[in-house]
Amino acid sequence: MRLRTCFLGLLALFVTGKCSYSPEPDQQRTLPPGWVSLGRVDSEEELSLTFALRQQNVKRLSELVQAVSDPGSPHYGKYLTLEDVAELVRPSPLTLRTVQKWLLAAGARNCHSVTTQDFLTCWLSVRQAELLLSGAEFHRYVGGPAESHVIRSPRPYQLPKALAPHVDFVGGLHRFPPTSSLRQRPEPQVSGTVGLHLGVTPSVIRQRYNLTAQDVGSGTTNNSQACAQFLEQYFHDSDLAEFMRLFGGNFAHQASVARVVGQQGRGRAGIEASLDVEYLMSAGANISTWVYSSPGRHESQEPFLQWLLLLSNESALPHVHTVSYGDDEDSLSSVYIHRVNTELMKAAARGLTLLFASGDSGAGCWSVSGRHQFRPSFPASSPYVTTVGGTSFQNPFRVTSEIVDYISGGGFSNVFPQPSYQEEAVAQFLSSSPHLPPSSYFNASGRAYPDVAALSDGYWVVSNSVPIPWVSGTSASTPVFGGVLSLINEHRILNGRPPLGFLNPRLYQQRGAGLFDVTHGCHASCLNEEVQGQGFCSGPGWDPVTGWGTPNFPALLKTLINP
User: Fold this and answer.
1) In the chain, fewer beta carbons within 10 Å around the N or the C end?
2) Computed over its alpha carbons, how large is the radius of gyration of the chain?
3) Is the pLDDT of residue 16 over 50?
4) Helix, coil or strand: residue 263
5) Any binding-site annotation on 541?
6) What sign does the dihedral 489-490-493-495 (CA atoms) show?
7) Active-site residue 293, yes or no?
8) Which Pfam families is this protein grouped with (predicted)?
9) SS3 content of the chain, % helix, strand, coil (to 5)
10) Is 368 assigned a ligand-binding role in the annotation?
11) Is 302 a catalytic residue?
12) Distance CA 11, CA 174 (A)
């Protein structure tokens, strides 16, 4: 009866704040380092806010992902179309009607949905938004490497209780744009240069991972790959052309991006944006490449959320997507993190391979009630993505076997339970590793990551017409692994097979076949007496530092070409 009373008073609710609830009480709202407030936003200024509407049949969607991704299933490779997904998850007519009436009454305008109808983006004035979202108070902030401007609320927002069954969260209030953890390391010192390389280039990658000059796209398929960028960073076509001129002479390649989705700024190129494009297009050579450039087209938009909306609104997408984005799990609200996970599930159901960087903080570290714990990263910890860790050469100047890059992100989720596809591999690691950290530092029953790895140390990148050496991070390993999978998709498509889709069930079933196992080294963690800066250590088989290992292209192709 109380809910009915609240609903009848819907128009008054966003004014009085009665009968309200907070959708994201656990969302971190502290200002990230490097950001400062410029004060309240004028009440007549326009905002673009995104409303995440409650979906239907999420459990059924999860079952379908398993069916289309498991090689033992009769439905393996029979991916859903965007329209199939929309039919499944589309909010109920009651949800659509209730939310639209609520927004209309508040004065929202220019509302746009997506094909799946589970997101609604609307424009409101600041005054209208603050009335609608009780408690919100919009401020303008400036920060980040590019001195970007964003509009966010330092205070939590509330919604009418009548909307609790209909709205998951409202995007554009709290989460700040991510920052890059990419770094330039000092050049290692060495005497003499005979038979040595001076940093990682496409030819070094191709030599280490056994890619020949013939291992390139055929140019005859509809195969494509993509990278996504959220850092207010851009690549320049001229940098890509110069990079290929310097480093792409030994293999057929494309020297320009096929399609940019979103806005490409006119400012200086960013090293991370340049790196993503240059190494995706040199590892996945001669394959059509898209770039999602999503800085957030308006100050109140969240770049990563905008990318998810694009995926839900385009029926023909590249088969492989590489993303170098992550947040600490604990900084995100529970409702947001689970909803984003469902969006990643939707992509898996459609046969998209999503690769996320595992992060550059090793096991991470934070203090909970005065005790240290490791700090997992998301979306790296999502059960529906393939997460890529990082390695270094044993000898930094020779193409040798690989060891752990100490920055390689990895660990166990505190949010998502361990998916069945990895239970055996994780149990094997936990029972056999001689260097396990204390059990209080990690959730041994959580989703464990990364799944795979590639070189992440000492890359050459061309940015703003300048070749830059010794660039390091899992932002480098992720596009390299993505490019390798695109080459395998090329062979599968030429053989009449579907693309690989969500790789993890198959990857774990095959126990790392086709990958170089990385068995030496540990990654970083808490600098305290108990663990002394050491997180997990790699060993034979899967481990939460380098996953199953790094690609050996001919062997991996043989493993993944059929069925």
Assistant:
1) N
2) 23
3) no
4) coil
5) yes
6) negative
7) no
8) Peptidase_S8, Pro-kuma_activ
9) 30, 25, 45
10) no
11) no
12) 25
Coil, helix or strand for 349? helix
User: So what's the pLDDT on residue 296?
Assistant: 53
Note the pLDDT tens digit of each residue in 295-342. Answer: 555 677 788 898 999 999 999 999 999 998 889 999 999 999 999 999
Backbone angles phi, psi at 516, to 5 degrees: -80, 120
Question: What is the rounded CA–CA span in Å between residue 232 and residue 296?
Answer: 8
What is the rounded CA–CA span in Å between residue 489 and residue 485? Answer: 6
Give the pLDDT band of residue 293 (cuts 50, 70, 90).
confident
Catalytic residue among 239, 276, 402, 457: 276
Minimal CA–CA distance to 225: which of 510, 547, 493, 553? 493
Q: Which residues pair with 170 in a beta bridge?
A: 51
d(CA 479, CA 512): 19
What is the total residue count of the chain? 563
Retrieve residue 291's tokens.
């770039």
Candidates 239, 272, 299, 490; catalytic one: 272
3-state secondary structure of 26: coil
Residue appearing with tokens 């481990």: 543
Q: How many CB atoms lie within 10 A of CB 28?
A: 15
Secondary structure class of 93 (helix, strand, coil): helix
pLDDT digits over 110-145, tens only?
999 999 999 999 999 999 999 999 999 999 999 877
What letter represents residue 562's amino acid?
N
Contact residues for 366 (Cβ-Cβ < 8 A; gap 6+): 328, 330, 372, 373, 375
* CA 530/CA 551 separation, integer angstroms: 35
Distance in angstroms (rounded) separating the CA atoms of residues 283 and 215: 9
Q: How far apart are CA 32 and CA 177, in angstroms?
A: 10
276 is catalytic: yes
Q: Which of 274, 294, 456, 475 is catalytic?
A: 475
Establish whether 517 is an annotated binding residue.
Answer: yes
Beta strands in 446-488 (DSSP E): 446-449, 452-455, 459-463, 466-472
pLDDT band at residue 226 using 50, 70 and 90 as cut-offs = very high
- Nearest of 213, 165, 222, 193 to residue 21 by alpha carbon: 165
Q: Whole-prediction pTM value?
A: 0.94
The answer to whether the CB of 404 falls within 8 A of the CB of 521 is yes
Question: Which pair of structure tokens corresponds to residue 117?
Answer: 């109808």
**In this structure, what are the phi and psi dihedrals at residue 338, rounded to the nearest 5 degrees?**
-75, -35
Backbone angles phi, psi at 330, to 5 degrees: -70, -10
Structure confidence by residue, pLDDT tens digits, 144-168: 777 888 999 999 999 999 999 999 9
Q: Give the chain's mean pLDDT.
A: 91
